[in-house]
Amino acid sequence: MKTKPKPRAGKYGSGLLDQAATAVNKRKASTKSRLDSVMGDIQQNRGTRRRNTQNGSK
Fold first, then answer.
1. Contacts with 21 (C-beta within 8 Å, 6 or more apart), sequence order
2. Is the Cβ–Cβ distance between 7 and 13 less than 8 Å?
3. In the chain, alpha helices (H)
4. Counting Cβ atoms within 10 Å, is residue 45 exposed (0-12), middle (13-18) or buried (19+)?
5. pLDDT tens-digit series, residues 17-51
6. Which of 31, 32, 8, 12 is nearest to 21 (CA)?
7. Structure pTM?
8. For residue 6, which of 24, 17, 22 has the smallest C-alpha distance?
9. Helix (H) or strand (E) holding 57
10. Closest CA to 20 of 9, 30, 29, 12
């Protein structure tokens, strides 16, 4: 009786699980980078606003 060839084992054992894990990690990474950029923009804006109020210009 011939057995099915096993999928190439990756980090998480079976190939299918590995694919799912990489997809999840990619999604996490993209949301993290988006959040980082948004937070950076907010902090920059806050800094310029503070400077402007100190200078007396709005």
1. 11, 12
2. no
3. 15-55
4. exposed
5. 677 777 787 888 788 888 888 888 877 777 676 66
6. 12
7. 0.33
8. 17
9. none
10. 12
